[in-house]
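anyone seen this seq b4? input:
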Amino acid sequence: MLPIPGQVLVNVGDPVDPTQVVARTNLLGDFHIVPAARLLGIPTSQLGRHLRVRLGDEVRRGQTIAALSGPLGRSVKSPLNGVVTASGSGRILIEAQPTRFELRAYIDGTVSDVLRNYGVTIETMGAIIQGVWGAGRESFGVLKCMVKSPDQPLRARSIDSSCHGTILIGGTKLNEAVLERAQELQVRGIVTGGLAPEMLPLMKGVLFPVVVTEGIGEVPMSEPIFRLLATNEGREASISGRVRPRGGITRPEIIIPLPSGSTPPTQAQVRSPLEVGMQVRVVRAPLIGAVGTVVALPTHAHRIETGARVRGAEVDLNQAEPVFVPLANLEVLR
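predicted toks r here
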């Protein structure tokens, strides 16, 4: 979706690739009010005779927009590149030039719907992995597995020139040296199982998406997720670090499109309900990241520690006995 109305550049049925611009618009620029009369030391009524620009004129940063006569006279310069849009009461209003905003497809797929002037829906068939925490925006690249098992950390020394333009797959954690090295070699993203709490402030300035699949702390990546990523090493994928934790609307993700010509699963397979025997992952504390098998689906709601009565499932997490987990805290692993 575009942030404001603009122009959609594709039609329903068009194939798209991740870098393709599918819509664009012009974002209104910032503006600056220059108190020119005060800066010149003159009454507001006299500013008009000292203006060096007119309404509608384009100005450059540092350009003189008002000045007093004489070699030693004071002058006022524009603080930004823009257009003079108003003047009065001794002040000059300068608006920055609009900025072109381009919306890219993000994934390989086909346009299935167009929302006029705003955006598109793109369909693709493949695997999707959702994380519990993320940083950065969107990117795409070739998956590159950097560890041999999900309990190994990603090391800075293992990141070399072969990692340029790839999405790195780690295991338990990463550190500041890994981020610095990855940025030097312009990687397209990092996927890790856990993230140390002290790393959170550093993630604000990260130049590429980071997806944390399990949670904050030294947490190994779940085996099914690691296996899926590792077996698809060398294939292109899209990655997004966007997250809205309160609304639960957006979660960080990795999307691996199926190769061209693959047979898509049926709708029933894609949207099958939870059943006994399914493998699931817990996506909220206190068992976040745990993987197990559904052994029972109680008919009645259970009361949990918060006092709420919720529907859930009995899940075998390789503990002494099955654990009751609310349905909202489970996702099915395929």
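The chain has four helices and 27 strands. Helices lie at 36-40, 176-184, 223-231, 267-270. kinda curious what u guys think
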